[in-house]
Amino acid sequence: MTPLRLWSLGEYPQFIALVDSLPPQPIALTVTKIPGTEMWFGSIDVTALVTNANLSPTSVTVYPSGYGSSSAPLPFPPI
């Protein structure tokens, strides 16, 4: 299992993890607010993305779901 854990300080409940491979393989990562804090947390298993890649992936990029569209909050939430 290859877990990806994400902590965020922004109120943005969903992120996309994108494995650097051909073809690109995105997976949704949902985070939930940690009670009593300003932090959000979530984790996913990226094993399937890494093992299904045609080439050996060299990185995983995480960004807010919808980033770059008119519905995405700016600035980019700190993660």
Mean pLDDT: 77
Q: What portion of the residues fall into strands of 2 or more residues? A: 35-45%
- Distance N to C terminus: 22 Å
- Say how many strands there are: 6
Q: Any idea what the shape is?
A: elongated
Major β-sheet annotation: 3 strands, antiparallel
String of helices and strands: EEEEEHE
> Structural class of the secondary structure composition?
mainly beta
State Rg.
13 Å
Oligomer kind: single chain
Number of domains: 1
Provide a count of the helices.
1
Spatial order of the strands forming the largest sheet: 1-5-4
Estimated helix fraction: under 10%
Low-confidence segments: none
What does this structure look like?
- The protein has one domain.
- Helices cover 6% and strands 39% of the residues.
- The protein is built from one helix and six strands; from the N terminus they run E-E-E-E-E-H-E.
- The strands form two sheets. The protein has a three-stranded antiparallel sheet, with no helix packed on it. The protein has a three-stranded antiparallel sheet with strand order 3-2-6, with no helix packed on it.
- The longest helix has 5 residues.
- The radius of gyration is 13 Å and the shape is elongated.
